[in-house]
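QA checklist item 7 of 12: single-chain prediction sanity check.
[x] sequence parsed
[x] length recorded as 454
[x] structure emitted
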Amino acid sequence: MSRIDVIMPQMGESIAEGTLSKWLKKVGDEVKRDEPIFEISTDKVDAEIPAPSAGVLAEILVQEGQTVPVQTVVARLETEKGALVGAGAAPSAGAGAVAGPPPAVESTPAAAELSHPSAATPSVPVHAGNGGGNSFEDRLRTKSSPLVRKIAAEHGIELTGMRGSGIAGRVTKKDIMQYLDAGGAAPRPAAPSAPSAPIAPRQAAAASLGTMWPTPTAEPGDVVEPMSKMRALISEHMALSRRTAAHVTSFMEIDFTRVARLRAKHRADFEAATGQKLTYLPFIIKAVVDGIKAFPVMNASVANDTIIYRKQVNIGVAVALDWGLIVPVIKHADDLSITGITRTLNDLAGRARAKKLNPEEVQGGTFTITNPGVFGSLMGTPIINQPQVAILGVGTIEKRPKVMTGPDGEDVIAIRTCSYFSISFDHRIIDGAIADQFLAHVKKTIETYPESGL
């Protein structure tokens, strides 16, 4: 009999765990090599995980919704069809079937990784090292989620000196918030939470903002469901960004009439030559790149009392999904033409919706563009995507009557294709004048876009 372990993969260097969000196969199903068998969610990306070998799915050891460390055995494949034991005999994750580290069951779908291994599941032996933060336990604690590490850094807390409620003492967000609430006392072991835990991510976000409100309760007829891993992470990241950056938003109206005419004139030839659909967004990205070159602080990050000016221009573009929001990144956008931007943009957006993105394709962004205008929104005040310092919001592009100056200096009313742009920026390092000059630069680039730019 030959069985192959299927493990929770490490989707990037900083990823310590993943949530098994959905099984695409059931016990007894035949699978082909590289055929997707389950979906995972991490704090970076949602992805489908392929089978490491052809065979039959013999055991499922981690159930949907469970969060487990990377390298945990989540299932086993039987590569000899005839040797497969009956599905009824397959041990479950709670029956001590996991040979590797025990799965961590989240009390909530948030990024606070609270684990409660089954009583029947043996604990992972943890051997303390000789100090200096080099033991397995120390390394695991310091590999807490990015949010936990950020809160610890802001409050001068050394994670290696704490023992949390996660696997092998891993410090969770709940632990560190309890530690701060207690005035620096050792964190209390977390108890299993009640079924009403779906609102916990909102409580956690509120705690990080220094405020709390009463827990809402469901009324008869209400529907209560847990947040998905992605939704919980978006909740935490947005609350953290509002707490971190001094948000200010400016608006300008952009005249797209020239770009609209260029697009209409060259669209057929462009699409025939490239096989790509030509939208307004590549023109916007190109204008943003030019603006960043003129105002490099828009492409920076804040590190305590220093400013990091990013050399690379990596443009993140928010993509709305049925199950949440993801921001794939166009790397080295300043090196790409309109054709190159279009190809990359369409490829990333398509694979984002198909859950085919790699972790590195949603990392490393230096500036973000969000386009709620595709849903008809006129304007908005988007939240900065940390650790960036600015985000551009694009309103709907539509025809409007505008008062313009005629050839003899008289006022005339003309029909123009326009959009409202907003720039949310971090006032800690970007003054309003700089943000407005940047947005004015983007406006001028779009309104005077050269025909040779295609």
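[x] summary fact logged: The first strand starts at residue 3 and ends at 7.
[ ] second reviewer sign-off
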